Amino acid sequence: MGMTEVIQKAEQMVKNFHERDTTGHDWWHIHRVRTLAVYIAQQERANVEICHLAALLHDLPDDKLAVGEQAGWNLIERFFAEQNVPRAVCDQIRDIISSISFKGGTGTQTLRSLEAQVVQDADRLDAIGAIGIARTFTYSGAKGTALYDPAIPVRDQMSLEEYRSGKSTALNHFYEKLLKLYSKLNTDTAKQIGRHRHELMEAYVREFLVEWDFSEHRE
Ligand code: ADP
Ligand code: NI
User: Fold this and answer.
1) Mutate to test the pocket of ligand 1, among 103, 138, 177, 205 (most ligand atoms within 8 A of CB)
2) Exposure of 117 by Cβ count < 10 A (0-12 exposed, 13-18 middle, 19+ buried)?
3) pLDDT in tens, 174-219
4) pLDDT tens-digit profile of 164-177?
5) Given the CA of residue 64, which atom of ligand 1 is nearest to it?
6) CA–CA separation, 34 vs 26, rounded Å?
7) The pTM is what?
8) Which ligand places an atom closest to the C-alpha of 27?
9) Are 106 and 170 within 8 A, CB to CB?
């Protein structure tokens, strides 16, 4: 079976998997990431099919999702076996997916391929800008996290455990992660797309705090 068919099959499986997600990791996130990944791969002369397949599968092994990280890896392995995906392709996809996650900045993984850089950029671009803002509040709502609380400080250095379960707010997440992403983008193509998204988020956070202060001063 050729890569085009493998990609089609992956799309079906992943649609099914992400169908009921309400944490901002729904199918449309996957769809946007694969569109960005294909575009960036073309511009950067990376392997388009590898980037496409990795983008489709990238959020299956996620420790934040209900089924857990290992269950996601198992699904990927079963998919590889069922579709007879060539060994070299499996290795590349595993390498990309395991190396791209942010995990509070605690990940020490270095990206070993241009394709990993492309898929990471695509995922990060969908975390910033107008959609990134929306996803953050969706995720926070799903987890029951407060919009903002001036008494909860922005965390600087933190372990993965703290990043996931420590006390934070939706607004703090902009400082703890989202505003750091632009300067970490790998490719020039992603930096071009990301610049406006980053500036929009900066303006948004500024406005948010201006509105917040209005109430602070009028108690
Ligand atoms: P990671 O790579 O850190 O595991 P993801 O890329 O899966 O995170 O996160 C996807 C999106 O989910 C983030 O861009 C953000 O919008 C939202 N999100 C994740 N963690 C949080 C959080 N602690 N608070 C608010 N939003 C979050
Ligand atoms: Ni993702």
Assistant:
1) 177
2) buried
3) 999 999 999 999 999 999 999 999 999 999 999 999 999 887 766 5
4) 777 889 999 999 99
5) 4
6) 13
7) 0.91
8) 2
9) no
**Residue 132: is it exposed, middle or buried by C-beta count within 10 angstroms (0-12/13-18/19+)?**
buried
Helix (H) / strand (E) element for 55: namely helix 48-57
What is the three-state SS of 3-47? HHHHHHHHHHHHHHHHCCCCCCCCHHHHHHHHHHHHHHHHHHCCC
Report how far residue 109's alpha carbon sits from residue 98's, in angstroms, rounded to the nearest whole number.
8
User: pLDDT, tens digit, for every residue of 68-114?
Assistant: 889 899 999 999 999 999 999 999 999 999 998 756 555 556 778 99
For the chain, give the number of residues: 219
Q: Give the ligand at the shortest distance from the Cα of 59.
A: 2
136 pocket-lining for ligand 1 (C-beta < 6 Å): yes
Calpha distance 104→123 (Å, rounded): 15
